[in-house]
Specification:
single chain; 6 helices; 5 strands; globular; mainly alpha
């Protein structure tokens, strides 16, 4: 069947899934029985381009530090640099890439740079699992908006 361009006019939304990260259970103490869940989504156009550029950006750490400094002051920027073990403005391109994927693809909880840096340092396997799922969802593209989402939107507009 030949592609019908009108199909792109449908209401689309990012794919969102839950990912278990039970390596983090011990942070909650011995009584927790529930799974630790993160919700992540596939990235769309501009975010994909931004993430792809991070690998090649030697200025990533500088940009990250500046962004944090404007939000949290110099202490926030220094704390992230320290968490990542950055003392000479060098961060492996793969780690830059995965941190950026997670910051842009996390739905719940929202993950900022300091939290992503902490996961990168202390729970790399969690960072890796979440970023791999974001890549998988990105590769699948958007999905047709679910009927329940459309129904609730119509109800809100009524």
């Amino acid at each position: 069947m030949i592609f019908d361009p009108d199909k792109l006019k449908q209401m689309l939304e990012p794919r969102i899934v839950e990912v278990e990260c039970n390596e983090l259970k011990e942070l909650y103490g011995p009584t927790i029985t529930e799974n630790i869940i993160f919700k992540v989504q596939g990235l769309q156009g501009n975010d994909v381009a931004m993430v792809s550029g991070v690998r090649d950006s030697p200025k990533f750490v500088e940009m990250l530090s500046e962004a944090l400094a404007t939000k949290n002051g110099k202490q926030g920027a220094d704390a992230v640099r320290s968490l990542l073990g950055i003392f000479d403005d060098k961060l492996h391109p793969e780690l830059r890439y995965r941190v950026e994927l997670l910051v842009r693809g996390a739905v719940e909880p929202k993950i900022d740079y300091p939290l992503a840096a902490k996961l990168a340092k202390d729970f790399y396997v969690v960072l890796n699992r979440l970023s791999e799922k974001i890549l998988e969802l990105t590769g699948l593209g958007s999905q047709v908006k679910k009927k329940s989402s459309l129904d609730s939107k119509a109800t809100l507009n009524s």
